[in-house]
Each structure stands twice: as C-alpha cells, then as structure tokens.
Amino acid sequence: MFSNFFPGILVVLTTVLGVTAQNVSGVVLRGVSHGGQACPQGSTDFTLSVDKKSITAKYTAFTLSSTNSYFQRKNCQINVDIAYPAGLQYAVSDTTFSDSVNFEKGASAQHRILYYFSGSPDQTSLQHSYNGPLHGEFSNTEVSATGDQIWSPCGGSLPLNINNAVVLRGSGPGKIDVRSVSSGLVWRIC
C-alpha cells in the first residue's frame, strides 16, 4: 500500500513545488521594448537571471523631485518577450523596489508595478510607499499573495507587460530616484 503512495506524493510535490533547472534551461529573454517619460531610450537595462528566477530593470533617468506643494507621476511601460518550453508557465511572485529617497516632512511617494500579459484582462500589482522625513537608499521586497498571481499561457508565450510608476506628492521637498526593479519569477509545470 505505501509503496504506491509515496511515489505518487513525490510526483505531486515535484509538480507543486516547482521545476528543475533542466526544465528552465530553454527559457530565453527574446527581447524587451520600453517607453515613457521615466525611461528614455538608452537609459534602461534589462536582464534575466541565470537561474530564470528574476527579471531586473536598471534605470539611470527615472527621477522625480519637487520643492513645494505638488503631485507628479512618471512611468515606464515595459514589454518583455520571454520564450519558454511547452509544458511550463510562470508568474511574478514578488517585486524588489530599489530606490534612493530624499524626503523632508510632508513628502511622500508610492512606487507601484502593474503586471499583465498582452491580450489578457488579468492584472496584478505590487507597491511600496515612502513617507518623509526619510533619507537613504532602500531595497524593499513586496510579495504577491498566491491567489493574486497571474500565470503566463501554457503551451505558448505572450509578452509580459510591466508598468513601473511612481507618484510623488506632498507639501515638503522630495526627490526619488528609481535605481532598479527586480521581478521575481516562479515556474510551474502545466
């Protein structure tokens, strides 16, 4: 009885807990396009990690600042084309926001990332907020609730769209520089 039970459990755990490095060896970043006032051409660099568990966007021109009462918003719209083997699909599991913040009292910002696949109505977002007074370099990871994750198609790939936006508001001086955003990926067999 138990000899049939344990192999079955092993198959279920392998499927639920993730895929092996061999499964993701065929995953390739085919291309990235981007646009928006926060990421002019030549100011952004994109990488897919070697283990295929994250996509990182690094910015050199994503800055918002003001010295008095204000409301400002900037964004960078990114389209990521990832090729992956049939039988796999992925979702964004977490987002790490790396920002340089220089806020006096009264300044605040909300850094928000919206994810969706081209042609799909499903969306998910993660965000991190900063409130002045606050000064320094910050790296904050926000995790998607399991039910909030959206999965790529199984058997075909659609581009992943990432809308990276920052809203700066308040009554005191404030400046935020977006250094990078890393989107954690989780893979599963479908």
UniProtKB/TrEMBL annotation:
Alphabetical list of Pfam families matching this protein: DUF4360
InterPro entries on file: DUF4360 (IPR025649)
UniProt keyword Signal present: yes
The entry's keywords: Signal
Span of the signal peptide: 1-21
Protein name: Ubiquitin 3 binding protein But2 C-terminal domain-containing protein
Native source organism of the sequence: Hymenoscyphus albidus
Biological classification of the source: Eukaryota, Fungi, Dikarya, Ascomycota, Pezizomycotina
